[in-house]
Amino acid sequence: MPDLEIKNLHVRTEDREILRGVDLTVDKGEIHALMGPNGSGKSTLANTILGHPAYEVTEGHIRFRGEDLTEADPEDRAQAGLFLAFQYPVAIPGVSVANFLRMAMNANREEDITVKEFGKDLKHAAELLHVDRSFTSRHLNDGFSGGEKKRCEILQMAMLKPEIAVMDETDSGLDIDALRTVAEGVNALHRETGMGALIITHYQRLLHYITPQFVHVLLDGRIVREGGPELVHQLESEGYDFLRNEAAVDA
């Protein structure tokens, strides 16, 4: 049984159907890339996996480690071991990164983490990701650059240790240096914790630094092609038009 199983998923928002029967499985320790042009449904899938209330599942299911999470609240999905890295992380003025991380960790524990244990974990995570400890005293995402916001999310992953992270266009708006920093962080967590990842993107550049084992292409709400890293190179050279043409012929 796969860790994360998405079966025949149909999703709509307001009066429009966006996902039209998505099948996808992701196991801990696996790196998956979900690619597709703008408007194909990638962010809808990410938000639906983590239970965003704006998206209605009309058919199909989402299971995690055998438990049906299709109707579960977002916090229950997070506590089960799922994590969503947002395309546009929200700023929370007045709450430091460290305090936010401690509250997030305590939400999944019967007893609050001790100051000593939290400090030890934070020190290890900061060293693993090459983050200056002074970074954690700043207010969460308040005045952060795009790269700092994404680095902060990687730090959250390191502290919360999800089984599978869903990364919704994490490369959006990043320069080359920030992109490399984020990729190095994901690779480090994958090596150390065995974290699985579903990396959602319409660019190939992030996948130059994180090599996926599995690649899926979403087009018009359906996964139309699956393969390995070679599919990334094909998309880089041919774009999505060859898949659109194939879909038109099949129709």
Annotation keywords:
251 residues; alpha/beta; Rossmann fold; 6-stranded mixed β-sheet; 4-stranded antiparallel β-sheet
Structure description:
The chain is of the alpha/beta class. The chain has a domain at 4-88 and 164-250: Rossmann fold, CATH 3.40.50. The chain is built from eight helices and twelve strands. The strands form three sheets. A six-stranded mixed beta sheet has the order 6-9-10-3-11-12, sandwiched between helices. Helix 3 packs parallel to helix 5 (146-160) and helix 5 (146-160) runs parallel beside helix 6. The chain is globular and about 55 Å long.
Strand elements, count: 12
Per DSSP, the total helix count is 8
What is the CATH topology descriptor of the domain at 4-88 and 164-250? Rossmann fold
Helix content: 25-40%
Top CATH class of the domain at 4-88 and 164-250? Alpha Beta
Which oligomeric state applies? single chain
CATH homology superfamily name of the domain at 4-88 and 164-250: P-loop containing nucleotide triphosphate hydrolases
Please state the CA-atom Rg, rounded to the nearest Å: 18 Å
SSE order: EEEHEEHEEHHEHEHEEEHH
Q: For the largest sheet, list the strands in their spatial order.
A: 6-9-10-3-11-12
Which stretches are poorly predicted, pLDDT < 50 over at least 5 residues?
none
Structural class: alpha/beta
Shape: globular
Amount of beta strand = 25-35%
Task: Report the major sheet.
Answer: 6 strands, mixed
Mean pLDDT: 91
